Amino acid sequence: AVTDGKLSGRAQLPKQLANQLDRVTYSTSSISLFFAVDMDLKEAGLDSGNYWFYDHEDVDGLYRQGQTGETLEAESPGAMFLTVTTLKDPSKMHKGHHTCEAFTFVGYDAFEEWAGERSGERSADYEALKEELSWKLFQFLEKRVPGISEHIVYWSLGTPLTNEFFINATRGNLYGIDKTRTQVGPGAFRIDAPIDGLYMAGASTLSHGVAGATSSGLAAARKILDCRTRDILKQDGPELRIYPSDDPGSWPEDLQKRIARGQG
Prior knowledge:
The protein is of the alpha+beta class. 35% of the residues lie in helices and 14% in strands. The protein has a five-stranded antiparallel β-sheet.
């Protein structure tokens, strides 16, 4: 919608693409909680992995709930994602603080009443809602990581409006267009757009997620350069170094020194 509807302008679009834009639906959005704690999360049982916590086994039902505004009314979200970024990369710690990211799905419609207000200047009821939602998310995490809510040193909460403002995501979507049967494969937006010189990559083309967006970027590069993938994936520059997150003792000395400084 942004690329074709605003940057290119609808007047420039072929009829087929304009019709596709009129029919397109977008993936759900999220409440995003970024926070830091002065707590030993490894001792608490967490590691470098990504965690999905569910209240029950009806995952489809929880996802449907995440496409609505039910989380705003419920005592607690039914499902939540958590990752500890400083357990993925311990060299990023500062003063012994772990940084974390937690997300739960929510529909854009629940926040649409504040969409017309300027970012940073939204009304008091919006800010109060963010405070309430933050506490709900921390209470949910407390059940899975006891004591975590008592060790918060910083937090900031984002909503679908945050996604819309900072990354220009239509309706605050997380995964580009909705991944329905009619919007994947031939139904997704093409890499080689029907506008001369325009190529598109990202979650609304080949597939969603990191792998999908990466693949679409490679596909666009292949078309532009008229080459094969193996011609693009060549070593050029410093060697890419990969170290196991859960075994920092095996990391090079310079990174181990950085880890030691951050834990102090």
